[in-house]
Amino acid sequence: MTLSLPDRPGQLLKALEPIAKNGGNIISIVHDRNKVSGEYALVSLIADFPSKESFRETRRELEGIGISVVKSEEVVAKEDLTVIVIGRFNLDKIVGRGLRIIDVELSNPSSEKPCMKLHVEVPKEAVKGFYNLLHELAEKEKALIITPV
Amino acid sequence: MKLLLAGFGFIGKNFIRAVNEKITLLKSVDRDFKVVGVATSQGVLYSSRGLDVDKLSRLEKASQYGEEFEFGGSVKEFLEEGDADIIVVATPTNIETGEPGLTYIRTALKNGVDVVTADKGPLVLEFWELTRLAERNGCYLMYEATVAAALPIFSLYRECLQADRIIRISGILNGTTNYILSKMFFEGTSFELSLKEAQERGYAEKDPSYDIDGIDAACKVVILGNAIMGKKLRFKDVKRRGIRDVTQEAVELAKRSGYAIKLVGVVDDEPEVSPRLVPLRHPLCVHGNLNAVHFETDLAKEITIIGYGAGKETVSAVLNDVLSILKKRVIR
Ligand SMILES: NC(=O)c1ccc[n+]([C@@H]2O[C@H](COP(=O)([O-])OP(=O)(O)OC[C@H]3O[C@@H](n4cnc5c(N)ncnc54)[C@H](OP(=O)(O)O)[C@@H]3O)[C@@H](O)[C@H]2O)c1
To answer: Whole-model pTM?
Structure first.
């Protein structure tokens, strides 16, 4: 994100505070003094946040202390997962939730023990929730979920 | 030191054979090392001068040894009268009562006798009670063979990972299920057929539920959690799902995606035994009746050991425990 800071000493430090407080890990920071526009200096930084929520909270807090965020872009880290389900299972119940289905393979769909391979992309922060949901649904349907180690 | 062996079955007999084979080594550590007794369900074979292990190693039953065998003889008396310094427990596993091993171990420790056990029942039920009892009485309680048999798991942890914090342990802790799943993986056979073959080869019991429902693996998770991660785990705390419902099609689908389905025991905040997808290049991906244990630690990061989780090889662990105790006890 790019922040616009009043061109006074101590402003950068002040801006970093909400980021640290919300668990942001700063990966790079560029304080471009050549791009001073009037009384403001622009700072571009890349940070890693534990969740979307913590990133948004940081933005709110920055604005709260008078630092405007002139540009921001979220890149959500995703995880590629393969799981196998043995038994009946309703895929509708898991779609949405930031999940992208890459590929589904079915074997023996009409038998008593159908088997499905699910290859999905899940936001990193949602992986645990995704597994919990799978196990919950499987328990209801008496299906067996096999997840990666 | 005077050794008493409880249980003269598969492990007991192979232990005696190994003692016979390695007697020079044992005597080099402890000049006075001798096997003074062997207890079975029928009685106790005893000689204060020491039994002839060469003769013993060729017997099917301890009672065939000769008149030194006392039918109805009691291990308890033996331990209470100070006739042994160390007991090797190779009795049948009972995870409901822990007996007869539990009483043997309690009696031994109360009487200052060191313990080496291959029987995991007593540890699954009363790990902390027995550990405290050993501490209070200044005794050693060693149990390397109880988890993944021949693999040196507790020795590795005790000796080589002293500064490491163990974050997670995962493992293929049951050879029978690994044999079945490997057969399904390589030969495309059904679960039922693979189980049948495991039974024919003597890997699985007639009542296979102990293995295939993950009970055996869960027992090992309990011991690992307590002994290595300092947890207060009981059997009921381990979430458990066996391999009965794993189909041939599932194994095939997994294989095409670069995975093998394995029964994996995990020790962390949510201890669990369940079928999992193991990437084919993951160090835990071992086949046949092999076992593998994977440590994740803060300093060493990852360590995996692989080997035989059952069979004659188990006596390696038992004998190593005995030697470790001899080395600590004998003043030269
Ligand atoms: N087999 C393996 O590969 C392996 C690997 C690791 C750990 N273990 C553990 O090692 C232990 C022994 O296994 P195993 O395969 O040797 O079993 P096993 O062949 O059934 O032998 C058990 C022995 O214990 C004896 N026994 C029964 N009740 C007794 C009592 N009250 N007092 C003294 N002895 C008694 C039995 O004698 P009778 O024949 O007279 O009844 C038998 O000789 C088990 O706890 C097992 O889980 C085994």
So the answer is: 0.89
How far apart CA B242 and CA A144 sit, in angstroms, is: 10
Q: A64 and A106: one domain? A: no
Positions of B marked active-site:
220
Q: Is the CB of B272 under 6 A from ligand 1?
A: no
B304 in contact with ligand 1, CB cutoff 6 A: no
Q: What angle do CA A12, A44, A47 make, to 5 degrees?
A: 90
Rg (alpha carbons) of chain B, rounded to whole number: 20
Q: Which of B314, B296, B318, B294 is nearest to B306 (CA)?
A: B294
Are B241 and A86 inside 8 Å of each other by CB? no
Which tens digit of pLDDT belongs to each residue from A65-96? Answer: 888 888 888 888 889 999 999 998 888 888 77
Per-position b or e across A18-51, b if 16+ CB within 10 A of its CB: bbeebebeeeeeeeeeeeeeeebbbbebebebee
Secondary structure in 3-state letters for B157-171: HHHHCCCCCEEEEEE
Nearest CA to ligand 1 atom 15: B10
A-B Cβ pairs (cutoff 8 Å, strict): 64
Tell me, yes or no, if B253 comes closer than 8 A to chain A by beta carbon: yes
Calculate how close chain A gets to B243, using CA atoms only, in Å: 10
Residues B38, B120: contact at Cβ < 8 Å? no
The answer, yes or no, to whether ipTM is higher than 0.90 is: no
Q: Which of A32, A52, A71 is the last residue of a domain?
A: A71
Are B77 and B103 contacting, i.e. CB atoms less than 8 angstroms apart?
A: no
Domains and CATH numbers, chain B: 2-150+313-331 (3.40.50.720), 158-308 (3.30.360.10)
Among A51, A71, A91, give the residue marking a domain's end: A71
